[in-house]
Amino acid sequence: RRKFEASFMLKVVKFAKEHNNCAAASQYGVTEKMVRDWKANEDALKSMPSSKCALRRGTPHWSELEKHVADMVHEHCQNGYVVTRNKIHMFALQWAKSNPDHSKGFKATVSWCTRFMERHNLVLRQKTKIAQKLLADRDGKVSLFHRYVIQQRKKHGYALRQIGNRDETPMNFDMVGNKTVNPKGAKTVLIKTTGHEKSSFTVVLACTADGAKLKPMIIKRKTMPKIKFPVGVFVHVNEKGWMDDEGVKLWLDNVWSRRPGGLRAHLTTSTNKRLARINTDAADIPAGLTSLVQPLDVCLNKSFKEQWNEWMVSGEKSFTKGGNMRAPQLDVLCNFVIKAWNDIGAETVIKSFKKCGISNSLDGMEDDFLWQDEGEAKAETTPSDSELDPHDDCLTN
Question: Which of 137, 201, 263, 333 has the most CB atoms at less than 10 Å from its CB?
Answer without folding.
Answer: 263
